[in-house]
Amino acid sequence: MKELIQRSRKSFTVVQSIEADVPENVWIKCPSCRELIYHKQLAERMKVCRCGYHMRLTAREWLALLDEGSFVEYDAHLRPTDPLGFVSPKETYIDKLREAQRRTGLTDAVVSGIGSIEGRRLVIAVCDFEFIGGSMGSVFGEKMARAAERAAALGIPLLTINTSGGARMQEGVIALMQLAKVNIALTRLAAARQPHIAVMVDPCYGGVTASYASVADIIIAEPGANIGFAGRRVIEQTIRQKLPADFQTAEFMLQHGMVDMVVPRSELHSTLAKLLRLYAPEGRAAAHKSEPIATALASV
Amino acid sequence: MTQTLTPWDKVQLARHMQRPRTLDYIRGLCEDFVELHGDRRFGDDAAIVGGVATFEGRTVVLVGHQKGRDARENMRRNFGMPHPEGYRKALRLFQHAEKFGFPVICFIDTPGANPNRESEERGQANAIAENILTMAGLKTPIIACVIGEGGSGGALAIGVADRILMLEHAIYSVASPEAAASIIWRDAAKAPDAARAMRITAQDLLELGIIDEIVPEPSGGAHADPTTMVATLGDAIRRHLNQLLAFDIETLLQRRYERYRAIGQYEEDASGILHTVN
Ligand SMILES: [Zn+2]
Asked: How far is the CA of A105 from the centre of ligand 1 (A)?
C-alpha cells in the first residue's frame, strides 16, 4: 500500500494531465497496475482504474456527481490577493497565484455552487489539489463559509469534497483564521438542521481536517486516501521512526473511528443519493423539520 | 529596545525558558484555583491545564497550554504540545463554563499540536475541529491571551474568542518559522526570513485586524519582570471582561460571528475592485 501511494505521488502530473485539451487517442498509464487505459474510458469511470486504483480528480471533474446540467456556480468572482505582501525567495505569491490560475483555469482552490443529485438540490463545494496543493486561504475560506450560509439560508444540504495539503502559508495567520471562519458559518447550517456531508479524498490534511471536514455530520472517505492532521513526513521526522504502510489511510481512519465509511468512487453517487433521501424533509418528524436560517452575510 | 527587535528576536523571546507560563498567570491573577483534570475519554494531558478559580470576585474557567520551566518538566508537559485528550479536556471545560455561566479565559503558548502516531490515531484533527466549532457557538464570553507562542491549529483550538490579547513579544503563526522555511525556502535555516514574511508578531496581527490589543511587556521582556507582566495582563483581561459582560449572550454570539466571518482578504466582482474585509 505504501509503495502504491508513493508511486501515485510520482506520477501525479501524468495522471492529472488528462483533464483538458488532451489530444484524441491518449492512453493513460495507471500508477498502480501500470496498465494503459484509454482516456475516454477512464473519464467515464471517474478516473478509477480497473485495478481499483482511484486517481485524483480536479474540482470540475468532481461535478460529474451532480445531475447533468444542474450545476450553477457561485462566488466565481472571488479572487485571491496578497494580504501580507509575502516576501519569498523565488516567485512572489502573486506570481504563484497567476501560475496556478493559468494552469488550472481556476481562480483559487475551491469551486462551489448549487446543483442536484437525483433531483434533490444541495450546495456543493469542491477543493482542487492542483491549485497550490488545495491550500486554504482567504478565498477558500470565504467560499466554504458562503456555501454553508447559502445551504442554511435555502434549507438544503451541504456537500463538500475535500482534498488539501493544509493552510496557505503565504496568507499567514489570516489563512489559519479561515478554519474558525468556516466552522462558525457551519453553526448556521446546524441551526437550519441541514446536514453537512464531507467526502475526504486523497490527500486530505491540515487546516481542512482540523476544521469543517472533521465536524461534518457524515464523513465519507475514498479507498486508500491519505487523511490526517500532520503529514507522514513531519511525524516521521518528529518521532524518528518509520510509520506503518497503512498509517493515515482511509481504512486506518475508519478503524480508529474518525470517518463513517469508506466508499469506492463507483458507489459514491448512489451513497450520496441515499443519504439525501434519508435526510430529506419528508423523512423527518414535524418538530425536526428544517428551517431556512436567514443570514445577513450570505449572498444567496 | 522594542523598536530594534526583529521578528526572529521576538521568536526567541516568545520561546524564552523563563517566560511566565499559564499557571503563573492563573496563580498570580486568581484566588482559589482548583485544577480540573482529564477528558473523561482517554486520559489527562499535562500540556494543557485548566480549572475554575475566582478572578475579580467572579468564578471563571481558565484553560491554557503549559510549557515546562526545565527539561524535566518539559518532558512531562511535552513542551506544551497537546495530544487530542488535551484538547478534549479543554472542550469539556468550555462546556462546563457554558453550563454554569462562567466566562472563559484562555492562555495560548504552544509550538503546535503534537505530531505523532498516537495523536493521529486518537483524532488530532477532529479534536481541534470540535474545539473550534464549540468555541464558535459557546454561550459565554471568551477571552484568549497569546502569552508566548501561538502555534497554528494547536493554538487556535483554544483560541476562538470574543477578544484576543497578545503580549508585546508573543508570536502567532500558521506554521513555525522553521517549518515554513523548510517548505517555502527549502532550508530550515531561513527561519528568520520566514518569521518576517509570515508576519507573526503582535504588531503585525494588530495591523491585520486579528487581535484586539497588544499588552506591553516589561523592559527586556516578560521574563525580566514576571510580577509586572502578570499584573499588566490582568488589568487588560479585567477591562475586556467587563466590556463583554455588558452584552447579552445573543449580541455576544452575533458579534463573535461577524468577527470571524469578516477575516480574510480577497477581490470581489468582475471589475476587480479590491474589497478588503478584516
Ligand atoms: Zn490500475
From this structure: 28
